[in-house]
Amino acid sequence: MIELIDPIISSNKVDISTGLNVHYLEASKNNNNQPIALLLHGFPELSFSWRKIIPILAYEGFRVIAPDMRGYGLTSGGTKKYDTNISEYRLLNLTTDILSLISALKINKVDLLVGHDAGSSVAGTSALIRPDIFKSVVMMSAPFTGAPNIDSNLSYQDPIHKDLEELNPPRKHYQWYYSTPEANKDMHLDKEGLHKFLRAYYHMKSADWKENNPYELGSWTAINLAKMPEYYIMKLDQTMVEAVMSQYPKDNCYENWLNDKELEIYSNSFHSNSFQPALNWYRCMTSPYLNSDLKVFSNKKIDVPSCFIAGEKDWGIFQKPGALDIMENTLCTNYYGRHILKNAGHWVQQENSNDVAETLLNFYKNK
Predict the structure, then answer these.
(1) Coil, strand or helix: which one is 335?
(2) Going along 287-332, which residue ranges are E strands?
(3) What CA–CA distance (Å, rounded) separates 85 from 48?
(4) Pairing of strands 21-27, 63-67
């Protein structure tokens, strides 16, 4: 990995109080009193996903830290099984991981907290509950809607899954598929097969796949959700591998943002770890119980400066109808706007790193 990243970046490990040995990438110019930037990746990604952003921020004067999150990459500790207690993957514990990490690194505040995809929820939760530590926050690709409502019914069964199954053809939601024991078995292929699967998966969710033309869906109904591509709303009888392999790229359009050597970092990592620990995040997200401890923060706002960044070809902006509106108009009281960047899909910090870095720097300077 080291040979594929800027020389200013170092690879390190540290034991933290939640029982993990955390691998993280770090870069700085070794100036005193540097602002801290903490970058949190999503699925199926790694600290390596920030390789293009880290040096830009570092050369602009930040001390930049990007960890492999719980269950990912070279970070060790925690369960990797399906049939076990997965409460360690709930949002409050993932946030505690971040607090434990910066404590172990003797950092008492984070000036710029950035979370992409599933990392957006961890970043949002962190800023929501510890504004004394996290001084600004950027959510990327996945809008964050805050803590669950204190009045929400834990026994509520969403009819959306039955409604999806009744469509023609029958469909299912990818997050609930990822929560099944079959998902890891389906995706944890041999090295060659896994490499090809991830190539197709990254391609289909990028701006390189010409079918990505996202728009606001209106409401949480089966008919609306089924307008999204099949990597979100899958055919009922398909695996995720089957859903994306038909769109395997026929040329090297990805070379400018994720070449094969870079992709091997991901395929080797997920081959070694399997997908199960990462999928345990989804199991907590889809459970009405596992994140219910956050109800103690019900109706609490994010009061620190915040903004949202995504690629214009990213369906993640709209995959939860109404979420963007809640984040922008209800949750974030000191909001600096949404920034939808051209020439990027879901992997915006890799596909268009220069514009992401410029947007982050402008947000930080003008907040």
Answers:
(1) strand
(2) 306-311
(3) 28
(4) antiparallel
pTM: 0.97
Kindly give, in sequence order, each residue whose CB lies less than 8 Å from that of residue 187, ignoring residues fewer than 6 positions away.
194, 197, 239, 240, 241, 270, 275
pLDDT of 190-249, one tens digit each? Answer: 999 999 999 999 999 999 999 999 999 989 999 999 999 999 999 999 999 999 999 999
> What's the Rg (C-alpha) of the chain?
19
Say if strands 10-15 and 21-27 run parallel, antiparallel, or are unpaired. Answer: antiparallel
Among candidate residues 114, 112, 239, the one with its CA nearest the CA of residue 172:
239
Distance separating alpha carbons of residues 140 and 117, to the nearest angstrom: 6
Q: Is the Cβ–Cβ distance between 212 and 232 less than 8 Å?
A: no
The token duo for 229 is 């591509």
Calculate ∠ Cα 295-298-301, nearest 5°.
140
Provide the token pair at 328: 């922008």
Nearest to 275 by CA among 195, 145, 366, 184: 184
Which candidate, 123, 116, 143, places its Cα nearest to that of 318?
143
H or E segment to which residue 109 belongs? none
Q: Which of 39, 55, 57 is nearest to 47 (CA)?
A: 39
Interatomic CA distance for residues 229 and 226, integer angstroms: 8
The CATH architecture of the domain made up of 2-366 is 3-Layer(aba) Sandwich (3.40)
